Amino acid sequence: MGYTDLDQLAINTIRVLAVDATSKANSGHPGAPMGMAPVAHVLWNMMNFNPQNPDWANRDRFVLSNGHGCMLQYALLHLFGYKLTIDDLKNFRQLDSITPGHPEAHDTPGIEVTTGPLGQGFANAVGLAMAQAHSGGVYNKPGFELFNNYTYMFFGDGCAMEGIASEAASMAGHLKLGNLIAIYDDNHISIDGDTKCAFTEDVTKRFEAYGWHTEWVKDGDNDLAGIEAAIRKCQQVTDKPSMIKLTTTIGFGSKLAGTGGVHGNPLKADDAQGVKKLFGFNPEESFAVYDLYHKHAAQGAAKEQEWNQLFQKYQAEHKTEGADLARRLSGKLPEGWEKKLPVYKSTDPAIASRKLSEACLEAIHDVLPELVSGSADLTGSNNTRWKNAVDFQPPDLGIGEWAGRYIRYGVREHAMAAVMNGLAAYGTIIPAGGTFLNFVSYAAGALRLSALSRVRVIHVATHDSIGLGEDGPTHQPIETLAHFRALPNCMVWRPADGNETSAAYYSAITSKHTPTVMALTRQNLPQLELSTLESALKGGYVAVDTPNAAVTIVSTGSEVSIAIEAATYLQEKHGVAARVVSIPCFEVFDAQTKEYRLQVLPDGIPVLSVEACCTMGWERYSHEQFGLNRFGASGPYKEVYAKFEFTPEGISKRALATIDFYKGVPVRSPINRAFQQIL
Amino acid sequence: MGYTDLDQLAINTIRVLAVDATSKANSGHPGAPMGMAPVAHVLWNMMNFNPQNPDWANRDRFVLSNGHGCMLQYALLHLFGYKLTIDDLKNFRQLDSITPGHPEAHDTPGIEVTTGPLGQGFANAVGLAMAQAHSGGVYNKPGFELFNNYTYMFFGDGCAMEGIASEAASMAGHLKLGNLIAIYDDNHISIDGDTKCAFTEDVTKRFEAYGWHTEWVKDGDNDLAGIEAAIRKCQQVTDKPSMIKLTTTIGFGSKLAGTGGVHGNPLKADDAQGVKKLFGFNPEESFAVYDLYHKHAAQGAAKEQEWNQLFQKYQAEHKTEGADLARRLSGKLPEGWEKKLPVYKSTDPAIASRKLSEACLEAIHDVLPELVSGSADLTGSNNTRWKNAVDFQPPDLGIGEWAGRYIRYGVREHAMAAVMNGLAAYGTIIPAGGTFLNFVSYAAGALRLSALSRVRVIHVATHDSIGLGEDGPTHQPIETLAHFRALPNCMVWRPADGNETSAAYYSAITSKHTPTVMALTRQNLPQLELSTLESALKGGYVAVDTPNAAVTIVSTGSEVSIAIEAATYLQEKHGVAARVVSIPCFEVFDAQTKEYRLQVLPDGIPVLSVEACCTMGWERYSHEQFGLNRFGASGPYKEVYAKFEFTPEGISKRALATIDFYKGVPVRSPINRAFQQIL
What we know:
Protein name (chains A, B): Transketolase
Binding site for thiamine diphosphate (chains A, B): 68, 116-118, 158, 187, 263, 439
Largest interface: A-B, 135 and 134 residues
Number of strands of chain A: 20
Oligomer: homodimer
Function (chains A, B): Catalyzes the transfer of a two-carbon ketol group from a ketose donor to an aldose acceptor, via a covalent intermediate with the cofactor thiamine pyrophosphate.
Strand order of the largest sheet of chain A: 10-9-11-12-14-13
Keywords (chains A, B): Calcium, Magnesium, Metal-binding, Thiamine pyrophosphate, Transferase
Largest sheet of chain A: 6 strands, parallel
Family (chains A, B): Belongs to the transketolase family.
């Protein structure tokens, strides 16, 4: 409390930096930073963080869900002394700067999560708050409040309209996340103008319906004490997340204040001048703002210091937990965890890969305490819950605890994916979440941000093809594998048997900066002769090696064993020798040496690909493609496979056509390319 | 009112049919049909429909958003006399039946929209209700209430958790859709069991916050009069959509009633027997149910008859509107509408394709009154609003009218896409909606249902590549074109200039059973020499024809003109002749004769593809691919293009590498394939 002219100067400094940076870039969104500067100033001076170490484990988290307003965040990071210089601000939205058009966590120190696509940051913040609750549940001991940070999040009308934020808000209410404080920039403006044209609901009442505590600050432009009081009240409410509706004026200070004109366009030159004049702005004074902010930053550094001492004491008194937490914070996996992954012999029984995935989770959850599983209300179908798993729930519900490692996401696929991004960003958790592969598409917006922001999340995507049978075309993915394979920095595994499934888990867990989608079957799969953990970890390998083969059949997942039967069929019925190759993960296979890849798909032999999904993308590995470029069908799965000819006979027919077509033509392996793609 | 034993028999008949069909299929969801049979019985006997003509324009619409409970709907359709026999019920979930695992509108008479993926039906129903309001606004006259039907929708806890349903509910509240009545099956069970594990919000309060009228029927299992009274009350509320919370027992009658065990699995044999015994079920009596239901169906037929007479009179008194409506209901487009599409000469100025799209909308909206445009809060960026467009809004807001043809979807991409599916399903509207291409991904779940259920919706997807510049990687699509090209029955157009954009509109509007994604630029594009409406409508054509070419460069959209510059550069700097091909739409090009496609991409010349997005999918048309298999960058767009070498020089370098690599090798056109894919 007791705000002075210096506070007002700080606020106006943030506003003017936002005006200048967007003007210089001739691009960007000045309105939100100008409107939210007051609350940002008050809040950041209440938050615990250390600009010298943006990774301090117990720092308060800040998420700007309305990421287009990122000049607000860049200005704060700069003024508080993060590694973000005035030149970085001048390079706003310029090529290869650390101040891109929307905040990117992997680019810029002090950015917790990548935001901009609306609603994502909201759900990320819920994930960060869950991660705090969980980490506190696991590690806190009497006298050792190692984890007690808050997660603060700003969101605007756009985020409030997005379904993903609704899902996440409902979830946060259910989970009673008292450590989450969301501040709603109620400025009545979105890109199309006044929100009265599309968004007239009672947002406060909706959040109360979700089980949130709410506050309303009516003059968010000027009432600094009111803002602080509201935040303090929310901090006192420990059994509910809090939402502060903050009524502000977008573009405060501009001639266009309170209109859509200031939302997504820089101010005109005279307007920018006017803002500075209005604020009586004298650049010299801004050094005082540095002093003010650096003083708070120094307090943050001291708080981290205290925390480090506490943690040292903790490690002495609670050796096991201390060592475990130190390891997790360092980003290292436990020594030898991978030895627990199941290994199979070809004589082992056929089993669905969703069950094989369950066996992996069952085997490793004990040695990998950072693994936190869950499902979007398909637990029994996704097989994501190990025996004796404890649910992550507020303890007073009597159905779980904060330290629980199984999350009931509800039927909220998009929020699940974004919450997992938040869980992963917190730094102590490896999240895995299940739904049907077809419904990972609901989460496409969040998964692309997992990939872009380089976080390790695992999508356990079961029922991965027409093989799910009776549920029919509404549930049978066709385009989905191609979609996620096309996404940069996303690993798509489609294992064919037990060893390949274990390899998928090994890859997913050791890929620290990459999300993984595991496409898993509902139906049983036999164990392959030549599959081993090692071969599968090359992403692709020879599953049936036949001398003098006339064709190579390349496949994934449930179709590999049918391709192997086809090879036998070709030999027995047609006297034709065929090789079979399994490529459970394109991305991993592509990373092998060209020499190895040419061994797997050699020159001189035409290649036929087989996958019971769309053929797109297979041209990279095959000359001819057999797939399904139409929607599936509802029926028992064997009948559906037969209808579309994914049978030994159907594959053989196409293999013979392929051999015939390339007869007498010199065949170059698809691995041979003229140049390297831009990766 | 005055319900008798016969009503109870009807209800129990529905329940038993659901039990028997799921048992016979050994698959499916008996629980929801058993719990919702009472409300279905009451409601359907209040609804106006004619089983003899499921397409009657003013029928009440029914949407089962919890589509997994489709045995409820199939039983009703059968009992009321739609073309769905008892044998069809026995074939539930069997191959090639009209009773698939989830309801598919194009398969089954009486199904309005394809549901199953949770939340979709909710938003579809909002679209259907909007379409009624709009059609009434356009056509109703004093004495001629041509359009006054209700839209009824059932939804469960799963739908209530989905973000898309939240978006659509907020939108329906804003729009005051008094013609929409949603019935919430409050049975406290989802697949993971009791909803208390994940979903504890106050749903009624949330809907009130959206501006809905709400009712609660506490005994949805037995209180038929209460159900009817609640529905009648909601019918009286004309300025708000209504939600009836109906507390029911899932699997009513089963030993597992009220548990998750009855949600997604058929009943055990003894339990099924027990249900029949409990209900004192005597199959003979079910004929009485037919009689009861057929009597109501006959009333529906009579109502349609009355409506047809009213419509005849309307056509006489309101000739213009009558003829227009008759045409729209027949599915025909106005004679010669396509002549309004703009045509360009190569000397016309360069212009962004989002502006070219605007020019199309401006040119055709007058002659095509069924076209209803809109945007997810990006109107000024998507250029989706023609001058003088009137907003679709409740009239009392003073910012539009029901007859308005511009929809303010708010920042609700997923709901927008599903609402458009509902608008299209109503039968009088062609919907177009805008957002950035990158955020069509938020709507992937709905777009796949557009494709599956074969509806004509148009996604105006602007800012289609790294060419959007400063907004950066969070907003720059990479995988998106591949994703939607991989989706069956979805047309993806990426026009390179004005004539190609007009072709895209021609194609989208004449594709009655296919959705279209139009990928449009933010940046200006020159008009191409050889582009014409006719050539573009072949999906692919020769844009630069050069004799004795050493390479063909194939491209789309904004990269075509750069490829043409590259061809000049190759000639001038290297004396190399290059052809250039533009393929604005893969799906349309694939539908041309092989002869034509081989003319465009002939044997003997290696092909290099160029597109500033991921390369996946281009292997179908090219030997070598130049694209971007990584995320983009924030910066002025020309610098971003230069960074990734999408320049005449960058393309030429790769063209030369391609020529070199295929030197001395007999080159087969990628069009030549060994066999036809399964389409």
